Amino acid sequence: MFDIKPIDMTLTDRFLEYVKFDTQSDELTNMTPSTPGQMIFAQHLEKELHKLGLTDISLDENGYLMATLPGNITDRKVPTVGFIAHLDTSPDMSGRHVSPRIVENYPGGDIVLNATDNIVLSPDEFPELLNYVGQDLIVTDGNTLLGADDKAGVAEIISAVDFLIKHPEIKHGDIRVAFNPDEEIGQGAHKFDVARFGANWAYTMDGGEIGELEFENFNAAVATVTFKGRNVHPGYAKHKMINSMRIANQFIIMLPRWETPEHTEAYEGFYHLVGMQGSVENTTLTYIIRDHDRDRFERRKKELEHLVRKINHEFPGCCSIEIKDQYYNMREKIEPVMHVVEIAEEAMRQSGIPPKVQPIRGGTDGAQLSFKGLPCPNIFAGGLNFHGRYEFVPIPSMEKAKEVIVQIARLVGEK
Q1: 374: Cβ–Cβ under 8 A, 6 or more apart, which residues?
Q2: Which of 372, 401, 35, 365 is nearest to 210 (CA)?
Q3: Could you tell me the pTM of the whole model?
Q4: How many whole angstroms separate alpha carbon 398 and alpha carbon 405?
Q5: Cα(63)–Cα(51) distance, integer angstroms
Q6: What count of other Cβ atoms lies within 10 Å of the Cβ of residue 297?
Q7: Which of 150, 174, 183, 216 is catalytic?
Q8: Mind listing the pLDDT tens digit for each residue in 284-294?
Q9: 91: Cα within 13 Å, side-chain hemisphere
Q10: Is the backbone peptide bond immediately before 354 cis, with ω within 30 degrees of 0?
C-alpha cells in the first residue's frame, strides 16, 4: 500500500495560509457569494490550481471554482470522482485576522489561547482533546474561529491532488475538484452546476473528527412565526392591550421542552428557537426544524401549524406562520449507489482509520447535491469545535484526510 507522508508540511502550510482569508458568509446580503472575501479566496485558489497544472479550470461570477486532474489510465474507462469543500466560514464568530498557532506534541491539560482574557481550551470542557495527546494541534488565539470548517477540507483536497501529480505510479481516473461559497448559510449548492462539474459521484470534505463518514443528514426547514399585538398606554390597557411578546412566550412554552438541541442526540429531531425580535405590537420567532425521519419531519411542521391555530383561537388573527423547507436527508439518494460509501470506507481502512459511519446532526452541501443528481457523502476534514474560539484541528488528522482522498482515487481507478 502507498505510504502517504507530508512533503515539507505543504498541507499545513496551505492551511495556515488559507485561514488568513476572511471568508465569513452573510445571509443578509442576498448576493452570491454573499461576501467579497470568498471571491478573493477563490481567485487565490484558482491561481494555485493553474500552478499545479490542473485543466478545465473555471471560476464563475458566483464564486464556484472547478478544475480537473486528468486521469492516467488509458486502457479502460474509469468513473470520474469529485471532491468538494466550501470557501466560507461561519457567521457565528469573526473569521477576520485569524491568528493560528501550532501546539507541538500536545502534552495534555489546558491550552491557554489568550492569557490576557483568560481564554483556555481545556479537556475539562472539551474532553475530546485527550484523544490527541502527543499530536501537533492548530488552535486559535481566542479572538476568532479557526476556519478548519472548511479550509482544512480545501487544503486536504489541493494537497491530495498535488500528491497524485507527484506520484504518477498511482493510477486513477479523472478527478474533479470544486470549491463553493456560502455553505454555512445553506446556499452552497444552490448555484452549483452539477452538469458542468461532470463527476459520477463526489465527496464533500467537510466532516469533523478523524474517521467520520456520513451519508444521512437531517431533513430541515425554517419557520417564521409572527405575532401581532395592540399597544395601549399601560395605565389604561385593561381589556385593550394585546402584548405580542407575551403571546409569543406562550407559544414557546407550548412546544415540548425535551425536543430541543440541548436534550437530543443521534437520530432524535428537535425544534430550535434561533431568533426572537419583539415589541408590544409585533414579535417574530424564528425556528429551525430538524429530523432524520421524513414522516416525523412532516409531523413537526404540522405541529407548529397546529399551535398557531390554538393561539388564534384565543387571540383571533394574532398569529401567522411561514415554513420553508431547506434540504432533505440524502440517504434516500445514496442507498441506491452504496458503493460510493463502501469505497470511502475501504479507503479509510487502507489508511489505517476505523470508519465511523454516523448521521449528520446538521446539513451539508452534499445533501442538496445528492438531490440535484450528484451522490455526495461527507468525509472528515479533521477539525473539532467548529464555529467558535475553541476550534482546533490535529495536523495528523488533516494528513489522514489527504491520504483518504488519494486512496479513493486509487480504488476507483482499480475497481
Answers
A1: 82, 194, 197, 199, 201, 202
A2: 401
A3: 0.88
A4: 11
A5: 19
A6: 20
A7: 183
A8: 999 999 999 99
A9: 13
A10: no
* CA–CA distance, 76 with 72 (Å, rounded to integer): 10
SS3 string of 32-77? CCCCHHHHHHHHHHHHHHHHHCCEEEEECCCCCEEEEECCCCCCCC
- Cβ atoms of 143 and 97 within 8 Å: the answer is yes
pLDDT tens-place string over residues 268-318: 999 999 999 999 999 999 999 999 999 999 999 999 999 999 999 999 999
> Is 183 known to be catalytic?
yes
CB atoms inside a 10 Å sphere around CB 352:
9
Among 61, 311, 323, 10, which residue's Cα sits nearest to residue 166? 10
Using 50 as the pLDDT threshold, list the residues of the chain that sit under it.
1-7
pLDDT at 2: 44
What cell was used for 78?
474509469
Residue 95's Cβ-count burial label (10 Å; 0-12, 13-18, 19+) is buried
Q: Which three cell numbers stand for residue 251?
A: 407559544
Q: Which of 22, 46, 88, 216 is catalytic?
A: 88
Set of cell numbers at residue 210: 478523524
Tell me if residue 303 is catalytic.
no
Whether the bond between 150 and the residue before it is cis, its omega within 30 degrees of 0, is: yes
Q: What's the rounded Cα separation, in Å, for the pair 188 and 371?
A: 13
